[in-house]
Amino acid sequence: MKSCAIVILNYNGEEMLKTFLPSVCMHSIHDIWVVDNLSTDNSLNFLKGNYPQIQQIKLNENFGYAGGYNEGLAKLRGQYDYYILLNSDVEVTARWDSVLINWMQAHPAYVALQPKILSWKEKDSFDYAGAGGGFLDGYGYPYCRGRIWDSIEKDIGSYNDIIDVDWASGACMVVKSSVFHQLQGFDSDFFAHMEEIDLCWRMRKSGWKIGYNGSSVVYHLGGATLDRASSKKMYLNIRNSLSMIFKNETRHRFYRIYAVKYLLEHLAALSFASKGEKEFSKAVLDAYRDFRMKKNSIEKFEPSLEGREEVSRKGKVDLVFWNWKILGKKSFNQL
Fold first, then answer.
1. What is the DSSP string of 241-282?
2. Which of 57, 204, 276, 294 yields a CA-CA distance of 20 to 30 A from 104?
3. pLDDT digit string (tens) for 223-253?
4. pLDDT digits (tens, 9 = 90+) for 11-25
5. Domain extents for the chain?
6. Across residues 176-203, what is the average pLDDT?
7. Where does residue 222 rank: exposed (0-12), middle (13-18), buried (19+ CB within 10 A)?
């Protein structure tokens, strides 16, 4: 098998490919693949005409992020030891992929890894998605070094280290191919958002470690598919978060978390409604309704440890929203 495939998922992303592929081709040493979610723009003709060395996998429908990667990587199964899943709106830097893969090969207990992810628009600041390494609080809310809720830090070199994390960002993450397929990849019911956090949670429950390596750096545009202020993104995040927690926590623990999240997120829905932002209020209510409708069909994840021990959560914050909103702790080192 070859060591690594860089796999970019595309859906109507011709402009993203034009902007970001040059850096990927210039700075990468591994094979590059594009998995296309039945684009209706000129993406594939652009690739064929300008990047004939990039191999394509054409899907017969838009499966979303989760399903698109599952379908595409199934066609690469058995060919590569590692996949680097790279968003189409990411600019990479010299040696980015070799640093990540060399580190993974030297540390076999780790099955996922992310680089430092900075903002493409403001390159001295962290990106929203993943930043300096991802964690989960006690109620399943994700946060990062470099980004607490919507508070973004400048990059001053504080997170140039290598550490264990709870999850690696789907904007740019290495995954060990055998474990990805063993765990049946992403949950395709998620369609988009939170699927990489769910996968990393299942990996940790299965006794594998997740890492962050700040010596590899990429720049992420973000919002290329759904803007962070999108009501659809809010719906997907809330619905998928509930599914993820239900799958991975005990039933007793889930219902304790559910009660707190229900209160906080329905208060948010009331706040949105009072400000006339009815689409966001509706997104919260719809997310809870749709989760309840499908809850009985969601299977609890039962790990196969095979002599390994479950890797505990690294995030030590009980409720990151309380720290951020009430206590005013806006940076990671204040938590």
1. HHHHHHHHS-HHHHHHHHHHHHHHHHHHHHHHHHTT-HHHHH
2. 57
3. 545 455 789 999 999 999 999 999 999 999 9
4. 999 999 999 999 999
5. 2-220
6. 96
7. buried
Instruction: Tell me the torsion sign for CA atoms 87, 88, 89, 92.
Output: positive
Helix axes 251-274, 231-248, angle to 10 degrees: 170
332 DSSP 8-state letter: G
Each residue's pLDDT tens digit, 122-160 = 999 999 999 999 999 999 999 999 999 989 999 999 999
CATH H-level, domain 2-220: superfamily: Spore Coat Polysaccharide Biosynthesis Protein SpsA; Chain A (3.90.550.10)
Place of tokens 């009985």: 296
Q: What are the E-state strand segments in 2-129?
A: 2-10, 31-36, 55-58, 80-86, 90-92, 110-119
- Rounded-to-integer distance, Cα 241 and Cα 190, Å: 9
**String of DSSP letters for 128-158:** SSSTT-EEE-TTS-EEETTEETTEE-B--ST
Residue written as token pair 């011709």: 14
Task: Identify whether the C-beta of residue 59 lies closer than 8 Å to the C-beta of residue 36.
Answer: yes
Q: How far apart are CA 173 and CA 112, in angstroms?
A: 7
Radius of gyration of the chain (CA): 19
pTM: 0.95
Which pLDDT belongs to residue 223? 58
Token look-up 């030297």 returns 106
